[in-house]
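A favour, since you know our C-alpha cells better than I do. Go ahead and set the record down below.
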Amino acid sequence: MSDTPVTSFLGQQTPLPVSPEEAVLDYVPNPRPSALYLARFAAPEFTSLCPVTGQPDFAHLVIDYAPGETIVESKSLKLFLGSFRNHAGFHEDVTVGIGQRLVDEMQPRWLRIGGYWYPRGGIPIDVFWQTGTPPEGLWVPDQGVSSYRGRG
C-alpha cells in the first residue's frame, strides 16, 4: 500500500475550470506538521477580467503560508488561479477572495497574499491581505515584487 496522497489532478489531462466557484482545490497532508515553515507560490502572469469593461487585468500574485495539517497541491492551485481568466472582479475582491478561500479550506497557521496589479485606467492597484500576525519564529521574507514604476 502506498502512502502517496490521492489527488484529483496529478498525472491527468485536466481542463481549466470554467469559474473559481467550480474549481476544486486539493489538499494533502503536511509532510512536516510539527515544523514551522513558510511555503510560497508566485503567479507572475495571473489574469482576471475588469467587471466594468470586460477587459483583461494582469497581476503578479504572491501567496505565502505557514501550513497547518495540510498543504495545497500545486496543480490544483494552478488550475484554480487559471479559472479567474474569465472571472470578472475588482482587484480587491479577487485578491482577498483567493486568500480567504485558501484559509477557509486549508486552515493554515498563517497566510498572506500580495496582489501586485498592473495599471487599470492609469493607476496600479496593489492589494494585500493576511490572517493576522505571523506565528512567532516564522521567517517571513519580503515578497520581492516592486510596486509598478512604469518603464523607468
